[in-house]
Structures are given as C-alpha cells and as structure tokens.
Amino acid sequence: MRILFLTHSFNSLSQRLFVELGRDGHDISIEFDINDSVTEQAVELYKPDMILAPFLKRAIPESVWSQYRCIIVHPGIVGDRGPSSVDWAIMRNEQRWGVTCLEANAEMDAGDIWASVEFPMRAASKSSLYRNEVTDAAVKAVRLTIERMQTEGYQPQALDYANPDVQGQWHCLMKQSDRVIDWQVDSTEVVLRKIRAADSVPGVKDEIAGREYYLYNAFAAEEMGDLTGEPGSIVATRDRAICLKTRDGAVWVTHLKVVKPDEQEFGFKLPATQVLAAQLQGAPEAYRVPEIPATEDQDEQVWQEIRYRQEGRVGYLHFDFYNGAMDTYQCKRLQRAVALAKQQEISVLVLMGGREFWSNGIHLNQIEAANSPAEESWQNINAMNDLCREIIDSPDQITMVAMQGNAGAGGVFLALAADRVIAHDKVVLNPHYKSMGNLYGSEYWTYLLPKRVGEEQAKTLMQNRLPVSAKSANAQGLIDQVFEGPHEAFIQQVRQLAEEIADSDISSALRDKHKQRTSDEQAKSLQIYRDEELAQMKLNFFGFDPSYHVARYHFVEKLPKARTPVYLAKHRAL
C-alpha cells in the first residue's frame, strides 16, 4: 500500500511504524501536520491508499478524511477518547491498557474501529510505556488494520457504548490541577504515579523553596525511607538528582524545569541539582556513591545513573541517562567506570546502557544551557571520543553492547566501539548526524562504520537520515545479532551469550583482536581518524554556518515544525 504518515513529529512510535511497515513492503512517505493546506497538498501529491496518523495534536481536516481513509492510532482501549489517554490510565492505576486503530471522522476518536490490541500495564513512566508497550501494540494493531482493509467484505466496528465489551470512556485533557501532589497525604506510590503520568510532557508542577518547577523522571527511594524531614522537602542528592521526602518514604527526581524562568534561566529540562543550585545548601549527599561505581556489585533496586555488577568472569555496566543524552560530566564518569571495570578479573565486559535508551550521543540541552554552546559542544564531543577510545582499547576483554532501547547519532557509533553489538528486535537506530544541522559527526565513525558495512554502505547510511530497524541493521552488518522476545528474555539471552564467550577459548579471540587492532593502527592511527573528524566538527561548532546551533535551539525548545524535510516527505522530492 501507499501510506502517508501524517504526524506532529517523527517520534519513536512513528519511526518504529516506519521501519516495520517498510520492511513489510509498503511504500511510505511522511508529512508533518503543520496546517490544513499543507496536509491537503501532501495528499494531492502522494495520492495514498491510506493516511496513518500515529501522533497528532489536532484533528485531520474534513477535506482529507472525507476523501481518503484516515486511520488514527489512539493509545487507549476501545471506547477511550481524548488527548490524555495514557496519563489517565496511569493515574487510575489501570491494570490493562491498549492501542486502538480507528477511522477519522467529524468527532474526535469516535470513528469506526479497525483493530485494538491490549497489554498489561507496568509500573513505569508514560514515556516508557509509550516507547515500549504502546509502540509494540501499535505495530500489531496497524498491521491488523492493513490486513483487514485488504480482506474483501471486512467491515470495521462502529463505536457503541451500549456494547458491554466497550470499556473506555471520554477523558478531557489532564490539567495541572489533576496532577497536584499533596505531600502530606499522598503515599510514595501515588506521588510516583502522578510524576510518571506527566513524564516526559508536561511534568508535574510543584513548589520548591518558594519557586515553581515541573518535576520529571521519578524513582522510588526505598533505601532512603529512614530519613527524617517534612514531606516534600529535599533530604538528599545523588547523581544530580534530588530526593524528596514523602509521608511514607522518599522519591528520587532527576530533572526539573522552571515554570516561569527569568532571563538567566532556561525553559527546558535540566538535572535537578543544576536547576536548583543555591536552594540545595545543606541538603546531604546520600550514600556517597564512588566516583567510579564499578568496583563492586550494586543493588539494582537502588536508582543510580551508573552501576556495575559482576557474575563470574562477566562484568555488566549499566548507565541509565535520561532520554539517552550524555553530557561531558556523564561521559567522563562512564569512561572512568569502563576503565575500572577493565581492571577487574573479567573476560567479558557487557555495556548494557539503560532500559529506555542505549545512547543518543551528546547532550543538546546541556549544550544549549552553557555559557558558550560552541565550547560545550567541543568539550562534550571530546569526552564522547575519550569514552569510545576507552572501549576500543580493551586488549584483555571481549567487549559487548546490549541495546535494550533505541540509539541515535553518536550513540550508535559509541556502540560500534565494542567487539560485539547485540540489540533487541524492537530497537530503532538512527546512524547519522546530518539531521542536527548537518553535523559531520565524530566518535571514530569514519573508522568504525566502514569497517562493519563497507565504504559505500557507510556513505548511504550517513546521508539518508532515516531510521533503521535492528533486523535491518543486522542484515547490513551494522550490528552482530538480534534477540527477540520480552525484555526479561532479552536480558537472559545476553547473559547466556556473555557466559558462553567467557567460557570459550578467550585467549585465542583476544589474540585475533590484538592482531586486527595492531594492523588497523599501522594502516591509519585512531588519532588521525579523530583529528580528521574533529576538524570538521570544529567548523560545525565554531564556523560561519550556524545550521547546527539553529537546529539544536529548535530541538531543545521544542519549536513547531515549519516544514517536512524532503528525506521524509518523498512525495515532495518527486
């Protein structure tokens, strides 16, 4: 089928549907929902068999849905309607939720139902559920919708609230008044639900030291339950997060945003302690975590950005960075953690990343907030390069990457620094930089990428600016292996593979690795690759072309799209 995606942005759900339906053989083009006339023009140019709306913030114009079959991907069960579907599901502590594909008509979310797929709810943030359970269910529901459209005689189900099987209902947009935390009354579990239901948009408004902030990314602080303090007060900090006392425990909150920033403040998310600064005087640093947390096993239930555990001859290094972004400080900490892990008695080092993301490269929010964004960009990319080099130079271990979540830009090439790269089959990779203001890129990509896929395919990947599924990346040689199944099964498969490698003739594998690295270094040193890449990056950061700085500003400030780039809207390229 010819399918036109009409979407507010090319977000994680849209990208996953794009790669999955493309693999099914469908012809797909994308148009950002800018205004009615642009949508009408896109439809006239492409003449699709179907319009798919995976992520919209306004209604499709009647001039379009009355002429073309338009399918809305709604993140709710049958009968659920309204713009805050997952928010309300989390707040009501629903045990099951779903995704419904319905046909657009004059009434919001009330069209005929083509497919609906349900899933068990998990105690997680809205953004985590959206990237995982919602996205998986959406892929199944869209495929089922297409199959039914191609089945002669199939008729979609009309929405009928008299039907006892229709469990959903209309919900209005959730407001901040619905999200308010009452620190004296709400339990830790309720506080977590309220913050999780607002992550990553819009956050929960709360007052700290006389100022209003939006709170994001919360975790239970079970190990902090014995601390005293007034509910709602800051009782500790760790890894730039703050620990807020609840009436029956405490929660970690990693990021804040000022509600009404002044001229010296920023209206986007940053690490909590960075935003609060002076307000934190006297707040204790909880359980002072070693600067290099890779010397001993650490409790997986305790929230930390970086943690390490060891099983026999295998070391597992987890790094859970919010939204996958890695600033200069985090890169340096992780590099030191890798260096110390390599000193342990292990044969295999597995870099696990976080459940939500592997890595998305340099930290654009931190760069935008710096006194000199160009200088901070330079510091950040050099810290990323140092981390990559630390992984490449691992003569005594086989290094593995286990991608549990998506990876983009420099995060992809950080993964390629390892000897083996394994990914979950739901992972989407964006192995390119150019969509961020024509960045050239670094992280030794000019060495690592052609080595895996060849010079021509490397050029193609870097130029096309499109996402790649894990299975497609595996077929191209970009990554080594793909595991399917639930998240827990993926972790078990990674552990089994790591143990098999550790139990094998590791000395022979290490000799081959050393021989290859020596040969590569003699042909062209890593320092030369780095110098060549950074010469181009310096022009991006400090040169006369402001494209990178403009693109970064638009990205960080979440400015509405003014047009759809031609590499997505191929109907416009024609």
TrEMBL record:
It comes from the Bacteria. Keywords: Isomerase, Transferase. SUPFAM superfamilies: ClpP/crotonase, FMT C-terminal domain-like, Formyltransferase. Gene3D superfamilies: 2-enoyl-CoA Hydratase, Chain A, domain 1, 3.40.50.12230. This is Enoyl-CoA hydratase/isomerase:Formyl transferase, N-terminal:Formyltransferase, C-terminal. Residues 39-141 form the Formyl transferase N-terminal domain. One of its GO terms (molecular function) is transferase activity. Residues 174-257 form the Formyl transferase C-terminal domain. It comes from Neptuniibacter caesariensis. CDD domains: crotonase-like, FMT_C_HypX, FMT_core_HypX_N.
